[in-house]
Amino acid sequence: MAESSKNTTATVIPAMRYKDAPAAIKWLCRAFGFKEHLVVPNEDDTIAHAQLTFGNGMIMVGSFRNDEYIKHQKPPSYLGGYNSQSPYIIVKDIDKHYNRALKADAEIITQLVEQDYGGKHYSCKDPEGYLWHFGRYNPWDSDS
């Protein structure tokens, strides 16, 4: 069983493939505040592998390519815009984060709203259709 990762590095890291991974990486950093941890470009200006951090969390990003992976998972643009999973990311200043995403033209799916169970959150899509949830609610704390 994994220990609580509240003050450690993340033990679950979502991975996504983008048609235009270099643009997606720039947009995710600008719109959501991710930081480039490692970016491994291919010679054809695609991304072999990238790691982006946010607090103690991380996502992995790569360019969409025709390989074994394509049989099991495709970007939302290949699925009529649907997502089968989506990350929830804890943000301390959710109002500031929401405004940052708005400035970057994130497609807002759920407006910034207080939740009955605590915290405030919003949901949006990035330019390639991935669904993201950001909120002040921290399920590791009972005092969120």
Can you tell me about this structure?
This protein is α/β, with parallel strands linked by helices. The chain has a single domain (15-135), classed as 2,3-Dihydroxybiphenyl 1,2-Dioxygenase, domain 1, CATH 3.10.180.10. Helices cover 15% and strands 33% of the residues. The chain is built from 2 helices and 8 strands; from the N terminus they run βαββββαβββ. The chain has helices at 21-32, 94-103; strands spanning 15-18, 35-41, 47-54, 57-63, 88-90, 107-114, 120-125, 131-135. The strands form 2 sheets. Strands 1-4-3-2 form a 4-stranded mixed sheet, with helices on one face. The chain is globular. The two termini are 24 Å apart. 22% of the residues are buried. The model is unreliable at 1-5 (pLDDT under 50).
List keywords for this structure.
144 residues, alpha/beta, 2,3-Dihydroxybiphenyl 1,2-Dioxygenase, domain 1, 33% strand, globular
How are the strands ordered across the major sheet? Answer: 1-4-3-2
The main β sheet shows up as:
4 strands, mixed
CATH class: Alpha Beta
Total helical segments:
2
Whole-number tally of structural domains: 1
The SSE order reads EHEEEEHEEE
The overall strand count is 8
Overall average residue pLDDT:
89
CATH-derived topology = 2,3-Dihydroxybiphenyl 1,2-Dioxygenase, domain 1
Taken from the alpha-carbon principal axes, the silhouette is globular
CATH 2nd-level architecture: Roll
C-alpha termini separation = 24 Å
Give the low-confidence spans.
1-5
CATH evolutionary superfamily: 2,3-Dihydroxybiphenyl 1,2-Dioxygenase, domain 1
User: What integer value in Å does the Rg equal?
Assistant: 16 Å
Give the proportion of residues in helices: 10-25%
Structural class: alpha/beta
